[in-house]
Fold this sequence. Notes:
Layout: H1 26-34, H2 37-51, E1 56-66, H3 95-107, E2 112-117, H4 124-139, E3 143-147, H5 155-162, E4 166-168, H6 178-181, H7 187-199, E5 203-205, E6 208-210, H8 216-227, E7 235-240, H9 257-270, E8 275-278, H10 287-295, E9 300-302, E10 306-307, E11 310-311, H11 315-325, E12 328-329
Parallel strand pairs: 1-2, 1-9, 1-12, 2-3, 3-4, 4-5, 6-7, 7-8, 8-9
Antiparallel strand pairs: 10-11
Helix pairs in contact: 1-8, 2-9, 3-4, 4-5, 8-9, 9-10
Amino acid sequence: MNAPAVINFSPAAKSAPPLPEARWSVAAVEALLDLPFADLMAQAMAAHREHQPANQVQLSTLLSIKTGGCPEDCGYCPQASRYDTGVTSQALLPLEEVVAAARAAKASGATRFCMGAAWRGPKERDLEPVLGMVREVKALGLETCATLGLLKDGQAERLKDAGLDFYNHNLDTAPEIYGDIISTRQYQDRLDTLGRVQHAGLSVCCGGIVGMGESRLQRAGLIAQLANLDPYPESVPINNLVQVEGTPLHGTEALDPFEFVRTIAAARITMPKAMVRLSAGRQEMGEAIQALCFLAGANSIFYGDKLLTTGNPDAQRDRALLDKLGLKVAG
């Protein structure tokens, strides 16, 4: 395999000119991942210093505004209603609770507040209260982000009008193994939503999950897909699978930590102007591996005690680590 799958941003791209040839083939990304570790790190550090402020980390906070009961069958997700994971379905949080959480996040140093809902996609009755949340969080002076699932025509524009800055919709994994992870939606469904987001003028937050049993070649396929989006995402969260008992991927062999660092480095080299976010799985990483991730080009983290339904290092531990490394919080 020497090129990523064809990228088709419908419906926004229906009348657009053909996309340019892939800037990063899968083979080229795999060659990066195959480099001696020190050589890969040197390239990633050089790309980071050229395109990003040195020694600076952006803090984001993620709040689950609607938890559990999702009809999808994502093999990694404890919020899928078909899996017995101990996550109970909860209604949409009231506006005042979301605003209070956003205020607390800002007081702790976060500059971006992301609201996540366990839906296949928002229905009209779902979208209206979320628009109110976006307006109120934006009024606090925070960057706003939402991850609500698949979007229909017109929904991205309404989110933009309400003050949304970023929309998160991950590709999850390489296209050739996507069907092994999720069967209730297609890869093209994800690309269609990204097309709607871009067409509305929203910034794109899009990454994936590693450690789901994929090969290095397939990790290269994910990075190539992301790097060849036109343009590539402004934010790229790289998640290390958090295994939850009751999900199909529970019991998968854990990814070697250095392989995760290599993935961060490849993301930085191929998407040098993006915010590369060290995301889910940080709680399972020691400080040394997190430090290597920052050296490899990660310059954003999710900050707080929880990522949707799984644990996250607490704020005090994060601050202590950033202090040890001489990393400053982006204002």
